[in-house]
Write a structure and sequence with these properties.
By secondary structure, this protein is mostly helical. The chain has four helices and four strands. Strands 2-1-4-3 form a four-stranded mixed sheet. It binds zinc ion (ZN).
Length: about 240
């Protein structure tokens, strides 16, 4: 019985690794998605900062144009001062010129404030471009690593599946049936459990002394009374 159990243990080990690799290969595309999402996020942050800066520059040019127009208007009014006939008209034109100057001054204040905002936006854009450039190499490296790991996993999986078939072919069909039935009942799909110091490693039950004695003789197949796994014992000496 000892050899058969050892074969089952090897079969189980191969199956556990197969499931582990299958899961890893299933998860890997999610890692790709996460990497792409991060790349996308960084590039969008740059685009938003670029658009913000472009908008500020546009606003600045608009204010500049407005200020020029107002200054032209003031110059025309000033030229008219020489043509006015009455004092009242003269005062009114002076008042108009003052109002225009006040408007221009307001626009110029706005332009100065915009220049500060533009400087800050330039700094922010440079920072975001740098962050994107810094991270993009790391992201590309990571994607290449994931790809390599997937290729390795696929290769290992293929070898393990062959190995599993090879081990399975050595197992007596009746024993194989017991194994498969036990496996189906276990949530972790582990059908075989070692008993160490009279404790089932599948469910931590203390194996009754009589059963433990029989188990140590390794004459026939033993099942854990609690978890129903095939149990085995290894002489530690
Ligand atoms: Zn058990």
């Amino acid at each position: 019985m000892k050899t058969e159990i050892q074969t089952l243990v090897r079969l189980q080990a191969a199956e556990i690794e197969i499931r582990h690799l299958e899961k890893a290969l299933e998860e890997a595309p999610k890692r790709f998605d996460a990497l792409n999402a991060e790349r996308q996020m960084l590039s969008e942050a740059v685009q938003v900062a670029e658009a913000h800066l472009a908008d500020l520059n546009k606003r600045y040019r608009e204010r500049e144009r407005e200020a020029r127009q107002e200054q032209d208007r003031a110059a025309k009014r000033a030229a008219r001062l020489y043509e006015v006939k009455t004092n009242k008209e003269y005062q009114a034109t002076l008042k108009e010129i003052d109002d225009i100057k006040a408007t221009v001054s307001g626009i110029e204040d706005e332009m100065l404030a915009l220049l500060d905002t533009i400087e800050a936006a330039k700094g922010d854009l440079a920072q975001k471009r740098q962050a994107s450039a810094d991270r993009s190499q790391a992201l590309a490296d990571e994607a290449a690593e994931v790809e390599q790991a997937m290729a390795d996993d696929r290769q290992r999986l293929e070898a393990l599946r062959l190995q599993r078939e090879e081990i399975a072919s050595q197992i007596d069909p009746d024993l194989m049936n017991v194994y498969l039935k036990a496996r189906i009942q276990q949530r972790d799909q582990r059908a075989v459990a070692e008993v160490i110091h009279a404790v089932c490693q599948g469910c931590h039950l203390n194996i009754p002394p009589q059963l433990y004695n029989e188990l140590q003789r390794q004459d026939d197949l033993k099942i854990c009374p609690l978890c129903q796994r095939i149990i085995y014992w290894q002489n530690e000496e």
